[in-house]
Write a structure and sequence with these properties.
- By secondary structure, this protein is of the alpha/beta class.
- The chain has helices at 18-22, 68-77, 79-89, 101-132, 136-139, 143-146, 153-160, 162-176, 179-182, 209-238, 242-263, 283-302, 317-345, 358-385, 408-450, 459-472, 479-497, 505-513, 518-547, 552-565, 581-596, 608-617, 637-644, 646-649, 651-660, 730-742; strands at 4-10, 27-32, 37-41, 54-60, 599-606, 628-633, 665-670, 699-702.
- It has an 8-stranded mixed β-sheet, with helices on both faces.
- Helix 3 runs antiparallel to helix 14.
- The chain is globular, with a radius of gyration of 29 Å.
- The protein starts with a strand and ends in a 17-residue tail after the last helix.
- Mean pLDDT is 81; it is low at 187-197 and 752-759.
Length: 759
Amino acid sequence: MAREVVELRVHGVSGATAETLLDHPVVIRVAGDDNAGFYRPRPGFGPDGPWDGLRTEAYRWGSLTAGAAVRTVSLLFLLPFMLINLAVWTRPATGGAGGIIGPLCRLLAATLTASYVLSVVGATVDIVGWQCVPYRSCTHGRGYLSWLGELPLGPRLALLALLPIGALRLLWWLGERSARAFEAFSATSGQSRVGGEDRIDRPGFWNDALVVQRLRAIHVAVGLGVLAAILLGAQIHIHPTLVSYVLFVAVWFQLAACVVLLCMPARLARKGPGRGLVDMRGVPALRRVAIGLTLLALGFTALPFPSESPRGQLPGHEGAVAALVGVQAGLLGVLVVTTLHQRRRSRTAATSWLGGLATPVFAAAAVASSYGFAAALVYRVADVLDRGSIPNPARPNPAGAPPLEPPVSYRWAALAGLVAVLVVAGVTLWRIGATRRRRRRLADEVVARDFPDPPPDALPRRATVRETVARAAVAEQFGPVFTTFLVLSLLGVTTVALDLVGIGPAELSQRLADTDGQAATRLALATDVGMYVIGLVAVGIGVLGLLSYRSEETRRTIAVIWDLGTFWPRTVHPFAPPCYAERAVPELAKRITAMTAQGGVVLSGHSHGSVLTAAALLQLPAAVLPRVALLTHGSPLHRVYARLCPAFLGDGTLYEVGNRIGWRWVNLWRDTDPIGGPIFSAHRPDEPPRVAGPAGTVDRRLRDPRALTVEPDDTVPPPIHQHWPYHTEEAYAAAVRELAARLDPDALAPEAGTTGRPS
């Protein structure tokens, strides 16, 4: 008697219910938990026996990335950290270990943490404690602030410094909230091939919990060190003593130690398969030193030294912001040069997204979003405390009024953000319009091939299909948009960084303020508009996050971006959203291994689920692979991942997947699908086939819709499915039957003493 074959369905970004995945009204969970589980039809409720000799099971992992409130907050506040973490995974494929791209991204990630702390320090210690509270006009009618005026300057600053520490703890919580449920899932003993890249098929690739723990300790030390340095720098200005200088130097040694640890590889070198152990040397000592120095800085600041009434801005804060921008400008410049150098050595640069420059694009986006949020926070706090008047150098303060002047770097960050939004929006509209004719021409070829002689009454429907195909191809046209954004970002941070040599925005602002006031007024107006634009962008991100749970189309669009950013392990920034694949991939591999002991498995992955299934196949032991086949549909494996992450899921890795399962692989795709596409064959009618041999038989295009006119047994024309799951189509069922028949019969032969199936 032949063994049982199970069709294991893995959903994509739509996060379908288990009932929808299985086309069954009543299902039960047979493995896993509420976060991610395996489901089968419940026996006794409808047809639950084998269908065409196949049983059906579904893996539902949508809860790993769901949760409206926390997910939306994370999308907004953790976006810069997610982008910088994604940057390192998009480097060019060179066959090596990536050179210094990893250390550069880790250093940039640390500057994002420092920028976050500096922004909270600016909104609390500087704007509130230093600039607002000493002035009665600022605290009048505000009981929540007036009591701070009763405290001496030192204790007041020390008390407000607890808020940045709380904000750092909030980042810890947002990044850690699901780590116990999603990460560090025990992996099976998979395969490993010899190679220079940190390959996705190595055992332990999806278990980076200790790396996150190491990075978290370093980033907390960075954040606490920045806070301590600002407090001690202010104390040196107020009441310089030997103790303050000693503590200040010690804090800088602490920050230098963080830089050294970030430049060192996270894992110790190891020969043979697998990955090396995480190098935790020095991390526990750094944690203790950071906590100790922060407590000493807070205690020293809280001492009630006699001091004059504070004036202007918090000493050292504006310089720290400008210096940090300068460091980021230098790191981004080196990252661009390094990526260009590696791009020349890469064989896939021509087919990669942005020609292999995705790494600096994501890094620049992380820096830009970080400073956009920081500027919006500090200016909004100053705006509220200034009773509606946005702080700027063109508005003279009345006598006795607080200065409430944020660092000038934030003002220019707002201007740069305004320019970037306007230019990028303009380039986007231009690109959509400029490529419309070509996209429509290609769509005409598709529609003419599928519906060569439509009746006159079907012409409007044919035009709708053509527009759908044309819109589905728009994502490939945005390369110039991101290139423009990268150039603007580099120019923006370089301009602000010129403050360090005295010829940047701060000097220009002072010169404008000494003129007749017209230029300064225009500059202030542009700054105000930039602040509102940044605020609207932040609100827009939050609204999109909320709408993604009300609109199916919006949810898919947002989920693609979110799931891409949270698919890869957090090897750069520990406060990025948790990596759901660290649970999903090993869990899938474990379940597949258990089921192949009882028969065969046809893995069916839709959309992002196809990425999880491919990654899981690369973790399977060699003895399991003859009993496994792969069916992907609506898959972004090549269209997104191979082009965006060529060093880890490039064409070579996709060929490796096919070779391991003996090319028992079918990929279904539609021209109307804006996310999925072919994996090995050409995507458009005017492109020649890319491959021959077994890989050339994987991709199978489906006509969408089935017809333009109403079928005899229906009342409306067939729908345009686009990215909708494919499992309701006959071509899907035929592919499942074909793959099940192609499984190795010897591998599926019954073994003595083996009965039953996994539960």
